[in-house]
From TrEMBL:
The keyword Calcium applies. Residues 9-44 form the EF-hand domain. PANTHER family: FLAGELLAR ASSOCIATED PROTEIN (PTHR47026:SF2), PIGMENTOSA GTPASE REGULATOR-LIKE PROTEIN, PUTATIVE-RELATED (PTHR47026). InterPro entries: EF-hand-dom_pair, EF_Hand_1_Ca_BS, EF_hand_dom. GO terms for molecular function: calcium ion binding. The keyword Calcium applies. CDD domains: EFh (cd00051). Gene3D superfamilies: EF-hand. This is EF-hand domain-containing protein. It comes from Triparma verrucosa. SMART domains: EFh. Keywords: Calcium. It comes from the Eukaryota.
Length: 342
């Protein structure tokens, strides 16, 4: 379980600290010594109390092994800080640096070299961890901005879709209103034209009028037999002429109706043309607004990435500088005061 929490370098450093209190190399330290170890690695307060309470449960005759020690640390492990320095690692570095100076002062150069290698490994690891945390935060910032842009783009399209739907519905209503109005006007025109043609007196031919004149003269003369013959001839001619007039009237009616319908169709086409032209203007404006929105969002992303690049350069330099400064301070303190195991 501990391996999932601590790296190999951290375990090695913890083992070195543990061994400082395992003075008889028995592989055990007492719970009292554990309290001192916790203080050295920066575990205090409620965190230390929980670890000490757990130690009482696993201790055998008041002592714990190194594996017990790791398990207890894992159980009470605090959440690792984000971008800032990890106090636990800094404390490891301080202890290891003091141990390195002690070994160097005592002439134990091989051990000092191993301690120095662990210091460098932990320092680089902490440096990379903080850099990784910064990158993760920057990626999260860019992701949040991209999500916001995606939502903005979705809202933009939704608003335009709604607007175009309303426009199409309004256009459909105008077309329907004009179609209904045209139907009413056409019916009125047909009725008016029919009435006009019905009320217009027929124009008979001279031949028919002459037959009718002779018919009436014979009737007034009481020559009914001849009058009947003439009437039959006149009626036949009138039927023929009436049929011809009806055909002519129908042709005139159809021609005028077609002309009226053509005017209405032209009016409808003009409306459709205006609707289509206006719709194309809306689509053109939508595409223009979309390009502006996407370009503005790209500019925001570019500015953010540029800002983060500058921030990373400075932050990475500060991380390295701070870690080196921390090690230098530890070396200075170690030179003034020998490492204590109590």
């Amino acid at each position: 379980m501990a391996e999932a929490t601590f790296s190999r370098e951290e375990i090695s450093a913890l083992r070195g600290i543990f061994s400082l209190y395992d003075t008889d190399d028995s592989g055990y330290i007492s719970t009292k010594e554990l309290e001192a170890v916790l203080q050295k690695i920066g575990r205090s307060g409620d965190d230390a109390e929980k670890i000490m309470s757990g130690a009482e449960e696993v201790a055998s005759e008041g002592k714990i092994t190194f594996d017990d020690f790791l398990a207890l640390l894992e159980k009470g492990n605090k959440e690792v800080p984000g971008e800032g320095p990890d106090p636990k690692v800094l404390e490891f570095l301080r202890i290891l640096e003091e141990y390195r100076v002690k070994c160097e002062d005592e002439g134990n150069y091989l051990e000092a070299g191993r301690a120095n290698a662990q210091v460098e490994t932990l320092r680089r690891q902490e440096e990379k961890r903080q850099q990784k945390a910064i990158r993760a935060r920057q990626i999260n910032e860019r992701t949040e901005v991209q999500i916001a842009h995606n939502m903005q783009y979705t809202d933009f399209n939704a608003a335009w879709d709604k607007y175009m739907e309303e426009y199409d519905n309004m256009a459909e209503m105008y077309i329907q209103q004009m179609t209904e109005r045209h139907a009413v006007k056409l019916l009125e025109f047909q009725r008016g034209l029919q009435k006009e043609m019905t009320q217009k007196p027929p124009k008979w031919s001279r031949e028919l009028l002459e037959w009718r004149r002779r018919q009436h003269i014979l009737a007034r003369q009481k020559n009914y037999s001849e009058a009947q013959k003439i009437k039959k001839i006149a009626d036949s001619l009138e039927d023929k002429e009436r049929g011809s007039m009806n055909t002519s009237h129908a042709a005139v009616f159809a021609r005028k109706e077609a002309s009226f319908r053509q005017q209405q169709q032209a009016e409808l086409q003009a409306l459709l043309k205006r609707i289509d032209a206006r719709r194309k203007e809306h689509i053109k404006q939508r595409n223009l607004d979309c390009k502006r929105l996407l370009q503005r969002n790209r500019n925001v992303q570019a500015v953010l990435e540029s800002k983060q690049a500058v921030e990373s350069v400075k932050a990475f330099a500060d991380i390295k500088k701070d870690l080196m400064h921390s090690l230098a301070m530890s070396t200075t303190r170690a030179a003034r005061k020998p490492l204590s195991t109590n």
